[in-house]
Amino acid sequence: MSCHKILKAKGYRLTPHRMLVIEALHNAEGHISAQEIYKQLHSRYPYSNISTVYRTLELMEKFNLVTETDFGEGRVRYHVAEKGHHHHLVCRRCGRIMELEESALYLLKDTLLREYGFEADLRHLAISGKCAECRKKKELP
To answer: What is the architecture of the domain spanning 85-135?
Structure first.
């Protein structure tokens, strides 16, 4: 079911602002920040406010329609959940982002449940570290 239909079924109005936030998320090539969504919203509705974007994103998160990921760049990025979940490896040194196969996390999820009684939500995850190329390079003083 689409974001529009779910929000409508939950009794929320599909205001032009909300529809534009949803459109920006769906049209994004990858992950998109609230600031990037706001730029698109503001270009069409100059009197809009970034708080509208954040409220809409919070509402969408409440119903698991978007996932948020922190790539370590000082802002959270969003991804439409219906596009599927995936995981990332983020190099702290060069900023390279690589996708991580879901199967790589199966053992972690099982271990967390078995050893800690913790049921992890690993729908969308970013793990920071150093990529192979940066590990080969000498650390700068």
So the answer is: 2-Layer Sandwich (3.30)
Q: State the DSSP string of 24-51.
A: HHHH-SS-EEHHHHHHHHHHH-TT--HH
The alpha carbon of 28 is separated from its chain's Cα centroid by a whole number of angstroms, namely 11
Phi/psi at 68 (nearest 5 deg)? -120, 145
pLDDT tens across 10-33, in order? 888 988 899 999 999 989 887 889
| Integer Cα distance of 109 and 93 in angstroms | 27
More confident residue, 115 or 121: 115
The domain made up of 1-81 is a member of CATH 1.10.10.10: yes
